[in-house]
Protein 1
Amino acid sequence: MLVAEIFHSIQGEGALAGLPSVFVRTAGCNLRCAWCDTPYASWQPEGTVMTVEAVVAAVLRHPARHVVLTGGEPMIAPEIAALAAALRELGRHITIETAATVAPAGIACDLASLSPKLLNSAPDPRQHAAWRRKHEALRWQPAVVRAWLDAYPYQLKFVVAQPGDVEEVEGMLAQLRREVPPHQVLLMPEGTTAAVLRQRAVWLAELCKQRGFRFAPRLQIELYGNQRGT
């Protein structure tokens, strides 16, 4: 599989924020989010071709028990299921960060961190017309999301750029036809700088208070800025 990076940091997002974790970021993505903050793993994937055994050995060089499989989109990476199984055999806690456009198919996973994309994610049609059509057709797959919800402990994480996005989130949740506890719905401000995140956090936190959703900061931006290996 093509691996963009493997690094030891803390989990910056979601219910496990703050936990020391080893991140395995695969390269390649089936979406093209306008605000993607890892283009080196998505828009123009780069990295090193590694075997499952090599990835596991790299993970084991670090002391953390929590391993995060992320991307790009890790679920399209060849041998991702074999990698997850190998890590499970070694007693690692596995979080899979996915846009939930690919069914889980029984993959080993302790926390499904599902991040379906809102309308705000669509690429500019003037510059990326073909990808805009593909992205819009693929970004929201309720049946696939339900497959994840029914099989694993989960969190639903949405990137919010403006207050109106929260109504879109509520509409998507209704389409799932599942009783999703509000505290498992995480709303995260869109942005790649601490200043933008703080600005959007003010009104987003208030909306979370009103709707009962969980506000999700991005600790890695606060601590390290928007850079690789964090």
Protein 2
Amino acid sequence: MFSPLQALWRALRERWLRYHLALPEFAFLLDAPPPGEWVSLDCETTGLKVGTDEIVSIGAVRIVGDRIMTSERFEVLVRPEGKVSAQSIRIHRLREKDVARGMPVDEAVKRLLHFIGPRPLVGYYLAFDVAMLNRVVFPMLGFGLPQPQIEVSALFHAHKMRQLPPHQRQSPPEIDLRLATLMKDLGLPMREAHNPINDAVMAALAFIKLRHLR
């Protein structure tokens, strides 16, 4: 439940977003999300520079309660305007001839928005993926992705902090937030990384597990 002040802020924010929405066809993004549903999201890119690098693939899966709806997943290749570097190919294994078959990023993002709807977003280091997507979303909508965002590594950090005795919480040891460490600590299966669907599924598994460890 939200406090009266939180409810007022949310109502004012929704009104502002609806007023500034550039394309009315995407008004559904601002509706109330289906209860107990989220979307786990991951993007592969040509590099880590938000201002200049490009998206080459997007993967997303819906979470309903404690179920990951992999049969309803979203997965697309995106055709970048620039070159795909050898370094990025070594990471995600998508060659220029692979992504040449992809769709333009605007079309890919429009389809993604319809898949997500108003559901909150889940991800591992999600802020980077959202920043990359917002380069496309902002000119399209007039603002960035409006959905709440849940960072799995932050949930894991909070979980590890709760496990510490009180006298260690003031100056805690450094917590390893690497995905492989996180998955092993939670007793979850590790899939091959740097595949957007695999990464989205792993983030979803961790999110579901961490929800029950609060």
